Each structure stands twice: as C-alpha cells, then as structure tokens.
Amino acid sequence: MQKTYTFHVDGMHCQSCVLMTESELKKVLGISYVKASLNHLNVEVTGDFGDKEPKHIARDLSEILKPHGYTVSVEKNWPARRSFSEGGSDFKIAIPIALAFVVLFIVLQKVGLVNLVNTGGVSYGTAFAIGIIASLSTCMAVVGGLLLSMSATFAREGDKVKPQLLFHVGRVVSFFVLGGVIGAIGSAFTLNVGATFALSLVIGLVMLILGINLLDTFHWAKRLQPSMPRFFSRHALGISKFNHTLTPLFVGIATFFLPCGFTQSMQLYTLTTGNFLEGGLVMLVFALGTLPVLALISFSSFSVQNRSKAGVFFKTAGLIVIMFALFNLINSLVVIGLIPPIFNF
Amino acid sequence: MKLTVISILVGVVLIGGAILFTRGNINTNVGVDNVSVVNGKQIIGIRAKGGYQPRKSVAQAGLPTVLRFDTNGTFDCSSSVRIPSLGISKILPQSGETDIDLGLLQVGTLQGMCGMGMYRFELEFKS
Questions:
Q1: Does any domain span residue A43?
Q2: What CATH number corresponds to the domain at position B91?
Q3: Model-level pTM greater than 0.80?
Q4: Are residues A243 and A136 in the same domain?
Q5: Among A21, B38, B50, B52, which residue is least crowded by beta carbons within 10 Å?
Q6: Is B64 on the interface with A (CB under 8 A)?
Q7: Predicted complex ipTM
Q8: What is the C-alpha to C-alpha distance for residues A296 and B18, in angstroms, rounded to an integer?
Q9: Which domain holds residue B98?
C-alpha cells in the first residue's frame, strides 16, 4: 500500500545535499517518490513500507543517509536542539579563536613587516620573500579570506582535497602565464578603479554570505547562497560537479586581479623584465612565496575529523570570513570615495 | 534568536574594536618640513612604504601643487595611491620619486589612501 510521510532531515545545508538525499532514497526498495526541501529541512517520501511505524521508517532511512552525514527523524529536532545547546557551546570556543586570529592579523600589520624589504631591485629570492610577506599582509584579508570561505564551504560538503588543490594550481599556473604575458607585451593589465571596486564588492558580498552560512545559525541565508540552479546541477551527473572543479580553478586565476598592493607592484616590476620567461618566473616565485600561508589556511579544514570539532571549525572559519568580508567591503567603499577612511594601519 | 543576537553583537564589538585599535590620531603625525615652494610651485613630499609619512601635511591653497612620492623598496599597498575626490589612481614604481600634479587647490582637506584602503594620508590646504 502506498503511503506518504514527511520526515525532518538533520544535516542538509545546500542544494547538492537535497539532490544527494533524493538520489539515495530513490534507490530504496518500495519508495516511489521522494521530494526533499532545503527551506523546510524535510523530505517527503511516498512508497510501500509494509506496516512499519513512521519511527521505524525514519530509523531505516537514517541508516542509508548516515554515511553522507544526514539524519532522518519524525520529530523536528533541528535546528532547535543544535543551535541552542550544541551550537552554542561551539560558539564559546569559536569566538575566542576568531578573536585571537583577528588580533594576530592586526598585530602583524602593525609591526611593519613590509619594512623588511630593503632592496630596490628584485631577484627571485626577494620575489619569494615578498610573497611570504604579502601572504601575511592585508592581502590575506582578500585572498586568504576568499580561500578560507571557499575551502570551508567545500569541506562541509565533504569535498576536502580536490577544490583546494585546484585553487592552488589555478593560482600558481595563472601567475606564471599572466606574468609571462605582462613581461612579453610590456603592459600590465591592472583593472581600473571602477572594475576593481565592482570585483571587490562582489567578492566581499560572496564572502559575507558564505561566512554567515558557515555559522549555521541563520537559516535564511541559505537561500542567498550562490549555487547552481537545480536544473543544471541535476543534469551535471546528479551532484553539482561544476561547482567543485571549475569554481576553485577560476577563483585561483582571479586572485591575479584582486586588489593586493604586493601583487600589483610585482606586476609593475614584471613589466620591466621585457620577456615572457623572466616575467613569468618572477610572478611564479612570488606566488610560490604566498603558498605556505595560503596552503596552511586551505588545508586547515583537513584537521576536521569528527563532527564535534567540525562545528567549532566551521563557526570559527565563518566568523573570520565575515570579519574579512566586512573589512574588504568597508575598504572598497573607502577607495571609491563613498565613505571617509576608517582603518588606519 | 538569542544566538543570532549574540553573534551579531560579537561581530559589532569585534569590528568596533578593530576600528578603535587601528584608528590612531592622524594629527600626531603632521609633516613639518615636507612642504616647500620652488619657483612658485608647491611641492608636498610624502614617503610611501608600509603607509605614508607624514600622515598629515599642511600646505597652502591657491598655489600650483605637486605631490611627490618617495619610494624605496615599496612593494606593499602604499605603492598604489588613491585620492578619490580628485579621481587620482596611480601605481608607484618600487623605488624612486613620482610626481603627481594636483593643480590649483582650494581651501580644504583631501583624503588619500592606498589601493586597499588601510593606509591613509591627509592633505590640508589653508589660505
């Protein structure tokens, strides 16, 4: 006999989770119709379950979805339980960590790392050193913040290694190629003020939304999450493959154009080299200099093994990303001249 | 909802703290002898490296004015100069002197900053 039940699903946080839930449950014998909803955090199933109690069915379905991190229940025990008890204690740890991180960031800016560079000329050694300093400077607020928001978001969807690797490959390769092109054609492609502003604004807003999502507290923000329309992702082999491969690659390449003083002045130096190989190598070495710190940021999500610590990690990452996003948004408004300067390092 | 309010409050406190911590008083760093007049042209000299020195310059209004940036191994954000109200956006070379012609200026204060907005300088023009 066909019956329809609606169960609550704990752990769904994105469009691909909806697709995953639906495609897994469709395989279950006896189920003829599945419809999961991200907005209501539930799933509607129609099928022949014999004379099992709803509780029993929920338990069976939970077994199937457990490997993917979702739990099915009859009673709605989410978000109320998680946000207030478990989620609350996560914040108690996450807030001090995020705070310490931001203080460290400000102190790094205040100690004047930039004054360590004393040479007028640029050798590959200095390009590498400048890369390291750049990765600890305010460029971290842009590139590091973007990377953290992206890698934490992917990690939460269970994809830890590949997006990170693609980001770094995209970044390093594009720095070599674009640096080479600048050296060869002898003109830098820095964006003008308007385009830089538009880019910073978009990135700031994307980071803000991703950061709020990582906190897992504001459920309305999920609807704002930039995701592939369901129609596309359904056709891209069920789970949104596009998001996980091309997005990090493109973001890595885009970092070449992000407003970062160090990147811009390295590009200006690359101009003077006058040939492809030398220009490319200077930018490559610079990108490699930024790699250790950036790799540390992106692979920090590797440490997330069990679920109890994962909550703390994602909330910490969310708080840091939100603060960097606001920092970037405020600064881009300052640079365009809409508001007077606020930060003063 | 309680948590929502708490997290917003924490966010506000953190941002506010960062602003207070980094704001500093721009008036404690006023250039004394960085403004000179040569052949009727006013030159304001500013050193750009890890920020701008001096942060505040006082010059005379109504004189043709040139802003001269001195860089020496400058790779940070201060190499990208912005003065939004005049539509100036310039990337300075790593080392050397770069002149930016400001033309004739009226009494008032100009705000300048680096391309990312966290280093700033102020030019005050008096009659």
A1: yes
A2: 2.60.40.420
A3: no
A4: yes
A5: B38
A6: no
A7: 0.71
A8: 24
A9: 30-126
